[in-house]
Amino acid sequence: MSTTAYEKQTAPAAPTARPAPVRLGRRRLGPGRPVPYGWAVGPLLLLALWAAGSALGLLDPRSLPAPWTIARTSADLLADGRLQSHLATSAQRALLGLLFGVAAGLVLAVLSGLSRVGEAVIDGPVQIKRAIPSLALIPLLILWFGIGETMKVVTIALGVLVPVYIHTHNGLRTIDSRYVELAETVRLSRLGFVRHVVLPGALPGFLLGMRFAVTAAWLALVVVEQVNATSGIGYMMELARTYGQTDIILVGLVVYGLLGLVSDALVRLVERRTLSWRRTLAG
């Protein structure tokens, strides 16, 4: 074997070019970017299914009228002014109950959250009320306040008080203890401690409680407006039930649903604006 042939045989093989690594797209964890007007997607889908079922004859119009029938009935109620009048009365009751309930729940939560003695006195009765539905309290409230507007507002306020108290109290008790130690180190006064530590720390819990509170206000309103009421959306629905007017009952249900959806969206908007400093999956 010649030297040249031997060198070719024993020479190391030329390195083969490695394939370029495939760069995989980075997978994003979490729910992703917010969907524009995502809050309306679910209700619109329900409306589309309702309309499709009515158009195909799958839904009995006597039990569940078509959406266009409800729209026509709503237009008639708006034309004669009945819907606006009942809606104004219902909104006034709900707002008054929400105002008193939020104020009471917030005060009780602060007293209970910042004091062990306050917690011992306040937390037990609130938990008892939490276990008792507002509907069960109506007979007693009627004996105490009569069957007028006071009873209705108090019932709504009691329904609102519990979620505001629960979530605000939890927000107070879950404040990072390092902030408390820092406040003691810089010798913050009691008022300064509440202003700079307690209120910002409890705000997320309070706003979450507000979302439950606005829903509780509308739920309690449905109940109280069917107890010796002479106006309001619930009274309109009860009167329609007497005469078998299913379309008017559904108009009232749609109004209640829209009020709940809009009020929750407003609280969430305030939450996003107020808590914009937090980096969460909510975006």
Write the layout of secondary structure elements.
Layout: H1 3-10, H2 41-55, H3 67-79, H4 82-113, H5 116-131, H6 134-145, H7 149-173, H8 177-185, H9 190-224, H10 233-242, H11 246-274
Helix pairs in contact: 3-11, 4-5, 4-7, 4-9, 4-10, 6-7, 7-9, 9-11, 10-11
How would you describe this protein?
The protein has one domain (65-274): Orthogonal Bundle (MetI-like fold), CATH 1.10.3720.10. The chain is mainly α. Helix 6 (134-145) crosses helix 7 and helix 7 packs across helix 9 (190-224). Helix content is 72%, strand content 0%. It is built from eleven helices and no strands. The protein is flat and about 70 Å long. The longest helix has 35 residues, at 190-224. The mean pLDDT is 83.
Outline of the structure:
The chain has 283 residues and is an all-alpha fold. The chain contains eleven helices and no strands.
CATH topology: MetI-like fold
Strand content: under 5%
Helix-strand topology string? HHHHHHHHHHH
CATH class: Mainly Alpha
Q: Architecture in CATH?
A: Orthogonal Bundle
Determine the number of helices (DSSP H or I, runs of at least 4 residues): 11
Major β-sheet, in short? none
Distance between termini?
75 Å
| Mean residue pLDDT | 83
Helix content: over 70%
| CATH-defined superfamily | MetI-like
Q: How many domains is the backbone divided into?
A: 1
Low-confidence stretches: none
Computed over alpha carbons, the radius of gyration is: 30 Å
